Each structure stands twice: as structure tokens, then as C-alpha cells.
Amino acid sequence: MISRFLRSLLVLLPAATLHAHEAFVETGNLPSPYATQAAAADERFVYAVASKVIAKYDRASGEKLAVSEGDASHLNSAVIMDGKVYCAHSNFPKLPEIGDIRVLDPETMKLTVFHRFENPPGSLTWAVRRDGNWWCHFAHYGTGNAKSVLVRFDAAWKETGRWGYPLDLVKAWGKSSLSGGIWEGDRLLVCGHDKKEIYQLSVPEKGDMVEWKATFSSPFPGQGLAEDLKTGGLVGIHRKNKQVIFAMPEKVEGR
Predict the structure, then answer these.
(1) What is the pTM assigned to this prediction?
(2) In a 3-state reduction of DSSP, which class is residue 211?
(3) How far apart are CA 104 and CA 46, in angstroms?
(4) What are the pLDDT tens digits along the chain (255 aa)?
(5) Helix ranges, the chain (H)
(6) Residues 86 and 102 sit within 8 Å (Cβ to Cβ)
(7) Distance between CA 192 and CA 177 in Å, rounded?
């Protein structure tokens, strides 16, 4: 669901103008040693995601309240839905790939398997739900990262679409792949592994290749990406600084 803040921007500005002038700027941060993979946030709490655990913080005070319980190997991007935290999870860098979505109950802090993928086409780095469908990115790395794919599943987990990425976008990833993704209306915002950039993509009605529409500057250098449910902006991490970063879109003059 598109946030009220971003919807207002879309109404006020034509698409071409918005794409030419938008950037995302930091509005605040929360220090956390667990901010190494991703983050998610709602009105009251902030969740910092590390490879094996998720830490829950009080948003107002910054106090750490609890750490998740349950096995995990390589947690990735997180999203809050229906009052729970869903994380993409893989066995990276082991082969063959094993991928699933893990769900955290914020009340009990129990982390369990929500859905396991059979023979995933890569390492699952993000999974988001939209209109009853799940959109999942399966990553490849190094010289083979062009094999990364976006896959759509229906509510019964039947695959209903698969798309590759344009080579010029893959080149922008370096040796990595996409680490985070979020739907904002009809536009898909994604980020890589280590650049302060957010890429706007669209999924065509016909064809098997996503379209790269725009690139926005970002205060967080890659990794997980989520909507901040309190502000309607974005939340991510700065891995080197061990911070959860909050961001909002801003019009940039002269670009």
C-alpha cells in the first residue's frame, strides 16, 4: 500500500518531474549492533536485523527490549505485515541454495518458518506481499549475478511470473545483487548491497525483463529496505556505522 506522504508527492508532481527531482534524505537514526542486514519499523517499535537474530527496540527511547529466539542462518530484508515481521532467509553462501521466509511474533519474539521454497532459483534476499501475491528476489553473485531473478507467487505459492534484470542495472550492482525491495504504488523501489542508491523499477505487462526507470540518492548504502509505517518514508541500515536509518523523499533542485 502506498504511503500517504508518497501519494501526496505523486499527486502534486507529474511522474517525469518526480523521477528527475527525488532523493531520499536521512531524518534520524537508531544505533544498534544488530543493524547489519536490514530494519523495519512501525509506530512503536524498531526492528534491527542481523544474520541470525532480530532485535526489538522501543522507538521513543531507543531502548533494546528483546532479541528473537529461533534458528536462523542468513536473515535478509524485513517487512512488517499484520503485526508481524517477515524476513527473507537463506543459507548463503552455502550451496545448493536453501530459501524460506521467516516470521517473527513481536509478542513472544519467536522466529519460525513461514514458507519454505523448493529448489529456489538463487539466494532469497527480499520478499514482499502486494495484492495477495508475493514478489521475491533470488540473488546470484559475482560473474553470475545477471542470473538474479524476480519471481511472483500467488497466495497458494504457485509461480505466476518471472523477470530478469537489464544488464546495465546489473552492472550497477558490481559483484553483488539486489538486497532490498518495496512496492510503493505501481513502482518497485530496490537497493543493492553497498551503494547509496535506490533504483525505481517497473514490471511490464508483457515481456520477461523489468524496466529501470530512475535512480535516487539514498542515505543508506544498500542492504534491506522497508516502509516506515509511522512516517510513510523508508527505513534501512548503515552496516558500517551499525545504525538503523530513517529517510524521507525530498525534492532536489537543479537536477
Answers:
(1) 0.90
(2) strand
(3) 13
(4) 444 444 444 333 333 333 445 899 999 999 999 999 999 999 999 999 999 999 999 999 999 999 999 999 999 999 999 999 999 999 999 999 999 999 999 999 999 999 999 999 999 999 999 999 999 999 999 999 999 999 999 999 999 999 999 999 999 999 999 999 999 988 999 999 999 999 999 999 999 999 999 999 999 999 999 999 999 999 999 999 999 999 999 866 554
(5) 4-12, 15-21, 167-172
(6) yes
(7) 6
